[in-house]
Write a structure and sequence with these properties.
By secondary structure, the protein is mainly alpha-helical. It is built from 3 helices and 2 strands. It has a two-stranded antiparallel ribbon with strand order 1-2.
Length: 114
């Protein structure tokens, strides 16, 4: 249920049957929007930050009135990434090495933070 066991993508106002191309386009569009929002910080808050390398990292969630909203947004991004892995959809999204190590439960060291 959390990872949409059956999924079909349809774009409003467009004709098309999802035989793989529409879902590929949807994954690509969502990933690009995440990267753009991190780079441009165009929304009220962005839960991702862009590094000079172009990689994205999650922003720390500060306690406060937007804490729950930010945590939900991070959870949604995690579900999106998991769905892309499950559906074997490459994304135009570069995660920072420290983020990758954290997701893989690998220990970080000082060299990782340079």
């Amino acid at each position: 249920e959390l990872l949409a066991p059956s999924m079909s993508v349809y774009f409003e106002g467009e004709q098309g049957i999802d035989a793989g191309g529409l879902s590929r386009d949807w994954f690509d569009s969502v990933a690009r929007a995440l990267v753009d929002s991190a780079a441009l910080n165009r929304f009220r808050f962005s839960v991702l930050a862009a590094l000079p390398s172009g990689a994205v990292v999650p922003r720390p969630v500060a306690p406060g009135k937007h804490e729950v909203e930010e945590l939900r947004a991070l959870f949604a991004i995690g579900r999106f990434l998991a769905l892309a892995v499950l559906r074997e959809r490459p994304l135009p999204l570069l995660l920072a090495p420290t983020t990758c190590k954290h997701l893989l439960l690998e220990p970080l060291n000082l060299e990782d933070l340079r």
